[in-house]
Write a structure and sequence with these properties.
heterodimer; A: 4-stranded antiparallel sheet; B: mainly beta; 5-stranded antiparallel sheet; 11 strands
């Protein structure tokens, strides 16, 4: 049982490039979310989804897109990378018993 | 005022000592409260939920004070393995699973 799997673990992008951060879960959880973590800021919610076909914005959605075509996958797309998007990105699922389960994170640097 | 506020530390505590962290939250209607632990360069993991009656898990005790809007975490007989960042987490939005994270309190246990 892998839980929540994020890929890649590390990525360096040039300003203006686009890319997709992958997140997959095998726990059949409806709720999935993406956070970014920056020093001194705590984790901030980017986008979330309450089920396949349903997504909504979190606290810091600008510059990011998401889609949820299946229960298992919740990719995060950076449309045109900016240095301000340098961060650690965590995908998470949640259920009522175990709370939040986070993926191991993606460390993104935009140069 | 931040929605969830923690003393960032660092707390440097000798092994075997007792250490306590507090966390304040701004929304009096908040429903659920948690402490998460995050090791360096790792994902956050649930340490314990915080209930109105308080709860204890081995050396860890969590308390909730709704009147003063704070939660606390007490660690007794601290171990070297307790060194980590402790995140205060609050569900402020009844009816969905969105969480608000504090910036974390960094704890280092000194041999």
């Amino acid at each position: 049982n892998a839980g929540v799997t994020q890929t890649p673990k590390f990525q360096v992008l040039k300003t203006g490039q686009s890319m997709t951060l992958q997140c997959a879960q095998d726990m059949n959880h409806e709720y999935m979310s993406w956070y970014r973590q920056d020093p001194g800021m705590g984790l901030r919610l980017i986008h979330y989804s309450v089920g396949a076909g349903i997504t909504d914005q979190g606290e810091v959605p600008n510059g990011y897109n998401v889609s949820r075509s299946t229960t298992e996958d919740f990719p995060l797309r950076l449309l045109s990378a900016a240095p301000s998007q340098t961060s650690v990105y965590f995908c998470a699922t949640v259920d009522s018993i175990y709370g939040y389960t986070f993926g191991s994170g993606t460390r993104l640097t935009v140069v | 005022r931040k929605e969830v506020e923690q003393d960032p530390g660092p707390f440097n505590v000798p092994e075997g000592a007792t250490v306590a962290f507090n966390c304040t939250y701004s929304n009096s209607a908040s429903q659920s409260f948690f402490w998460y632990r995050q090791d360096c360069r790792k994902e956050p993991k649930l340490l314990m939920s915080v209930y109105s009656s308080g709860n204890e898990d081995g050396r860890f005790t969590a308390q909730l004070n709704r009147a003063s809007q704070y939660i606390s975490l007490l660690i007794r007989d601290s171990k070297l393995s307790d060194s980590a960042t402790y995140l205060c987490v609050v569900n402020m939005d009844f009816g969905n699973e969105k969480l608000t994270f504090g910036t974390g309190t960094r704890l280092t246990i000194i041999p």
